[in-house]
Amino acid sequence: MSDATATLATRLNYSQCWEDTNILLAATRPKEGDRVLSIASAGDNAIAMAMAGAKVDAVDVSEAQLALVALKLLGHRLSYGDYRGLLGLEPSVDAVRVYRLIRERLPEFARRYWDDNEDMLLAGVLSQGRFERYLGTFGQRLLPAIHRKKTTMRWFELDSLDERRRHWKRWNNLRWRAMFRVFFSRRVMAARGRSPEQFQHVEGGIGNALMARTQRVLTELNPRDNGYLQWILTSSYLHPECEPAYLRPEGHAQLGDVSERIALVHTDLTSHMKAQSDGTYSAFNLSDVPEYLDLATTEELLTECARTGRSGARIAYWNLFVPRCRPASLADRIDRHPDIGLALYAQDRSFFYGAFQVEEVR
Asked: Quick one: CA dihedral 112, 118, 124, 127, positive or negative?
């Protein structure tokens, strides 16, 4: 393992999931009795699939990410207020004190990680992933130098598409365009938000594509309903219904059952699948993993999906900047559903991604 890959696998890259849970659930259709495979990442989407009744193998190469999921799953051992405080959503709650209430119930690797990173607990876990700190710099330091808070908050008051399009014209000034293209450039994102190896297969610049996606999510969709956008612009959720399901009272009440349905697996996706029997899974959440793979490795991954997936198993994943989909060589084993992918992508509340792939094992 290279030094860069080792760093990616050991640090906390994400403390929240930035793939839209709603369209993932619509694509994969998890239900009671299913066994599904999901990238663990920050856990939000794996937890949502388990809340739908499925048993979830949450796989990740990063122990840090798995330690985060383990922490989130222990929420059922805490009061609702203490749980929100543990994750940084109730500043009056001492997160380290709450952590020590459940510390002994964590797996040893997760206990070791959080013992070494109590500073993250004090700072608010949900803001401490590398990507979230990058977004925090944008929302808390750069954006206020461009737009007044009143102008920013106006996005969450407009219900009309015409009103939002007019507000975009005021918003999209020279300073905004210049700052956005620099901050969300490939160079700055690789240095501060993501990692250089995650851009290995990306060709050309990315600023214009991200600007167009940002305009779409600010105008064509309603920011009032968009927790992802709210967090980016304000570092908070403005409405309870915009929070991930596990953070709401009804979701918190389900975490005991959910924790019994999630298995945390420390390895890479392909290695894990190669150890599984034919027809094991009813659905796959691959996040944006194919983005980082060459064509041959993507084909190997999808071949394992075809083998370990039951007939009708849905495969869902996002394309950020690199086009990836089922290769022609697997056309007799996996069907593509570009119409479903396009329809769901039109509802995607996260501005980062450029396409959503929905495929199905025959």
From this structure: negative
User: So what's the pLDDT on residue 208?
Assistant: 85
Higher pLDDT, 200 or 287: 287
Structure tokens at 27: 């694509």
How do residues 77-136 score in pLDDT, each as one tens digit?
999 999 999 999 999 999 999 999 999 999 999 999 999 999 999 999 999 999 999 999
As a whole number of angstroms, the distance between CA 315 and CA 335 comes to 10
Residue 116 in tokens: 């070494």
80-89 — which CB contacts under 8 Å span 24+ positions?
A: 80/249, 80/252, 83/252, 84/247, 86/121, 86/125, 87/124, 87/125, 87/126, 87/247, 88/121, 88/123, 88/124, 88/125, 88/126, 88/127, 88/128, 89/124, 89/126, 89/247
Angle 142-18-165 from CA coordinates, rounded to 5°: 60
| DSSP string computed for 95-108 | HHHHHHHHGGGS-H
Q: Lay out the sheet containing 355-361: strands in order across.
A: 262-266, 55-60, 35-39, 281-285, 309-319, 355-361, 334-336
Place 194 in a pLDDT band, splitting at 50, 70 and 90.
Answer: low
Percent share of the chain, pLDDT over 90: 87
